[in-house]
Specification:
By secondary structure, the chain is an alpha+beta fold. The protein folds into 2 domains: about 5-140; about 145-265, no CATH class. The chain is about 45% helix and about 15% strand.
Length: about 270
């Protein structure tokens, strides 16, 4: 008769459940709270111990519910259905890998050592992270709703946080970059289409009421801006995440910033 120690069983399931939750979080691009994930994994280890001591009291549906509790503990209730489906899929994938490892080694699945289990789980996690690396990076993009006000007019659009955007004004305040289309309602007096070269656009904006002395050119070299300069203006206020930035500039570009229109500005 094979003896299973309670502490080893809890430790093994804790490590495996933590890797499963970590892989789920990476795939779904969820915020990773290590403490909550650790609590979820520990809960999984305790549930595994209880199921081993009293297997007749816990049908397979209970194990499905246990996985649901683990996911809620680790990631909360936001997007819980998607997270749970991914968690179960990752669990099935890892389980299949463990079965394959047992078949290749000529042993039984429940006879694999802790070292072998963790090593194979680590390999599987690395493969999943590599496959879904690009997906996680896209999902983790930070965006914010922007509200721009000028002379009683307002426009709202989505902006993407870009850590590579180092455009600043003379006071080292960050300069937002926005597509001209989303700013059009602010300048009904300005003739469309707007001038494509930066100096002409600056001259046209400077002639508008309320923009005298609030326009300038900023050096900015991008793939879509070979001219190397961008016209910019200072609106009455820019509101982002409930905070107002009354003295910030917005630089204007004539080309789309995203291929799918998911964001119209960069901050």
């Amino acid at each position: 008769m094979r003896i299973i120690y309670a502490d080893s069983l809890v430790l093994l399931n804790f490590a495996i459940d933590y890797l499963l939750l970590l892989a789920t979080g990476k795939i779904c691009a969820l915020p990773l709270n290590r403490i909550k994930m650790g609590l979820g994994a520990l809960l999984g280890g305790i549930l595994a111990l209880i199921c081993s001591l009293h297997p007749h009291l816990f049908p397979p549906l209970f194990k499905l519910g246990g996985g649901f509790i683990l996911v809620i503990t680790a990631f909360g209730t936001k997007g819980i259905l998607r997270s749970y489906i991914v968690f179960m899929g990752v669990s099935a994938f890892f389980g299949g890998c463990q079965y394959a490892a047992a078949q290749l080694s000529g042993g039984e699945l429940n006879a694999l050592s802790l070292k072998t289990l963790l090593f194979s789980f680590g390999i599987c996690y690395g493969l999943l992270s590599l496959v879904f690396k690009g997906r996680a990076r896209m999902g983790a993009r930070e965006s914010a709703e922007i509200r721009v006000s000028f002379r009683g007019r307002e426009v709202c659009f989505t902006a993407l946080r870009d850590t590579g955007n180092h455009l600043v004004d003379a006071s080292c305040r960050p300069v937002m970059i926005a597509e001209e289309d989303v700013l059009t309602p602010l300048f009904p007096e300005l003739e469309i289409p707007y001038p494509k070269d930066a100096p002409s656009m600056l001259f046209a904006m400077s002639s508008l009421p309320g923009l005298m002395g609030r326009c300038q050119l900023f050096p900015c070299i991008t793939a879509t801006n070979p001219e190397g300069i961008l016209p910019a203006f200072r609106p009455d206020s820019i509101e982002m995440k409930g905070a107002k930035l009354p003295h910030a500039y917005i630089a204007i570009v004539h080309t789309p910033l995203s291929s799918d229109g998911s964001f119209r500005a960069i901050f």
